[in-house]
Amino acid sequence: MLGRALSAARSPGWSRIPSRARAALAQLHSVLEAELQQIHGAGTWKGERNLHKSLEAKIAKFHQREDAILYASCFDANAGIFEVLLTSEDAILSDELNHASIIDGVRLCKANKYRYKHLDLGDLEAKLKEAQKHRMRLIVTDGVFSMDGDVAPLKEICDLSDKYNALVFIDECHATGFIGPNGRGTDELLGVMDRVHIINSTLGKALGGAAGGYTTGPKALVALLRQRSRPYLFSNSLPPPVVNCASKALDLLMDNNTIAESMTSKTKRFRSQMMAAGFTIGGMDHPICPVMLGDARLASSMAEDMLKQGIYVIGFSFPVVPKDKARIRVQISAAHSDEDIDQCVKAFVEVGRKHGVIS
Ligand SMILES: Cc1ncc(COP(=O)(O)O)c(C=O)c1O
């Protein structure tokens, strides 16, 4: 389409067009030329441009990996990776609480499936032993599990991967941009950036908050995904505003680590004040802070009362979390001030007292 518009602007009838219209067309011409310059060979049919390529390079640099490939979402990145990488001769070992998109991606893949108990290294090792009969093994885990904010023991997982000759894949949707001293993620937090082989993550949370996902890892893997990954091949590229927004978010993170550091201190502020007030907060030192309540009705009516106090939090209950483990999930953001956090705790104390959760 761009090509046709450009040749129209270069046609012999050009001189018969009134001068003002000619000026407008000349302007259009230069915009289209610039657009054509942007369009990148490999992904041309799906609207990929140089700005997508630059973002992929920036993502790879951020994670200290060889290359990266963009998807419309991390759901797509997870749906599109396993069937490309593994065949029926291989094995996937997946944490039982991995995100739904990993579960769906694994379902699409013909590899032999082993589900190990949540964060259970003994069970993972037993399954790795069993899986030695297969050609290749891939351990698949969320870096941080979103419902509880608990962190995968990546160092020990990498030790097992060395011992049993397996690759390690992590989903970093709940880590990229704010976990680790420089916000690089769980692998940075746990000192295994050079031992985790593949990372999938989202641009839809800490990196801009609109949409988009990616895989980053070895060059050869990314090249293979570009040729074979169905959600990449058969879906549109990310809209340019989303790409630019994520690119800026990465610039801010790579500039210095004040955002990542402030997340740690804000998270501590919220968790320590809430626990001092008598609440039970699930997970470890993660900005996802599940206020554990147990009862589903209690979680939803407390969330409603919090909204009346001007605090927007969501109650989660079965089937999103296990039965009798209903909670209100609070997510600390870099945009929150210390005063916001104190106001939120104050509201929780009032609402918690009203519902008899704390005294
Ligand atoms: C762990 C995990 N993986 C993948 C996804 C999907 O990410 P996206 O929203 O980019 O599709 C989510 C979204 O909530 C997630 O929590």
UniProtKB/TrEMBL annotation:
InterPro entries: 2am3keto_CoA_ligase (IPR011282), Aminotrans_II_pyridoxalP_BS (IPR001917), Aminotransferase_I/II_large (IPR004839), AON_synthase_class-II (IPR050087), PyrdxlP-dep_Trfase (IPR015424), PyrdxlP-dep_Trfase_major (IPR015421), PyrdxlP-dep_Trfase_small (IPR015422). One of its GO terms (biological process) is L-threonine catabolic process. One of its GO terms (cellular component) is mitochondrion. It comes from the Eukaryota. It is an enzyme of class 2 (transferase). Its EC number is 2.3.1.29. This is 2-amino-3-ketobutyrate coenzyme A ligase, mitochondrial. It comes from Scyliorhinus torazame (Cloudy catshark).
